[in-house]
TrEMBL record:
PANTHER family: DEHYDROGENASE-RELATED (PTHR10668:SF105), PHYTOENE DEHYDROGENASE (PTHR10668)
Protein name: Phytoene dehydrogenase-like protein
InterPro entries: FAD/NAD-bd_sf
Pfam family, one: NAD_binding_8
Amino acid sequence: MSDVAVVGAGPNGLAAAAVAARAGLSVTVYEANGTIGGAARTQPMNGSAAKFDLGSAVHPMAMQSQAMHELGVHDRVDFIVPELSFAHVLDRRTAYAYRDLERTGQELGGADGQMYTRLLGPLVKQIDAVSNTLLNPLFKVPSHPAALATFAVSTVAGMAVKDLFSGKFERAAALYAGCAAHVAGGSRGPANAGAGLFLAAAAHANGWAIPRGGSQAISDALAAEAMEHGAKILTGTRIEHVDELSARNVLFDTSAESAAKLSAAHLPERLSHALSGTRRSPGSCLVHYVLSEPIPWRDPTLAQAGTVHLGGTAVQVGKAERTAVRRGAAKPFMIVAQPSQFDGSRAPQGQHVIWAYCHVPLDSPVDMSRELEDMIEQAAPGFAETIIESHVVTAKDLEAQNSALVGGDLSGGTMDLLGSIKRPRISPDPWYLQSKGLYLVSSAAPPGPSVHGMGGFLGAQSMLKREYGIENWKAEN
């Protein structure tokens, strides 16, 4: 019998395995797919010679994550950090978010530049403290109360800029709205505004990083750390119920719904019902392109951006995101990543890989490739002529690729204020499933979505403390 079984080998599951293994426990990871990585996988598709990020492609939170630092990911992975973190296209105008906040403000100019730097400046200066606060449960006593207070004030100000005064600060508001729209649903609430602020601040602090070789490099680094300390990883192994596992503790890097099903008859009825009824964000439709040349942007500066947002003004972005919840938008907000502009290993020589997506209704089978192609074409005339391959992954397809992405929801559950607090339950130890040895460590638990590994990192520490009385896992290796 092993000490720990981890179900799911995404970044959170692998981080959990690494922490438990470094604490001296015997660990086995079970992954249903043939490869590890979950939403941080990179591989060919449909016989293509190119390598595609099946889930996430650009990783702001990996640069802010304590887990990635302490588990050696920053040492094992070559993170490429573009100087132009992201750009936002408004009709024929563009707003640029450089890693250098001062340069960003200068290029925005006037009232827009002053507002943007005033809004982001305090957060960028305190980015480590802000990250430590936000990449931990909301019910934890904050280690940096001053940073939390600054963030709260900035969130209120950001809501005003994005939702009330976007006409006055059009380009600054568009930059901020594009970051907030990474959280699906178009909420006007504080959770959406806060997430957007954190993403924007990260862009001007440690940057929006692209791992050389693709997102798989992050997963492989976490797996290497876990195996170096004795963990075993079994791929192509689907677990149907915890009773199959010969382990004292089981950590679920799965959806909340799957955790409830896998733990049937072991969880309190109320918690099992809550997990099974997790509120969901809209889904996503991804399109992976292989091009004969870089995107022929009308604005050539866009070629320097790791990420490009297409969708117009802050008002238009918000409207498109709210429309996506129920019926989808004819002109959606769109995120485009250009990894092969910075990493030539991703496609055959002379070719380029492009990763693009928009939000759609949950569980939608709709192919949005025509709408996305038209939007890029408007900003880059001649784009269609450069396409060698396109591979569409609908919201339903996303769940088929990775069962943790229920209905194509990349967020692990709705990320509004309630969804951020009740994740999966209101508790100072939210990973513990109120049944001995059972823990939820995926993005369905705090601190939520993005590739940072913190759900597994913190969830495993909860298990070590509760089950073994281990307070300092690093001292046990």
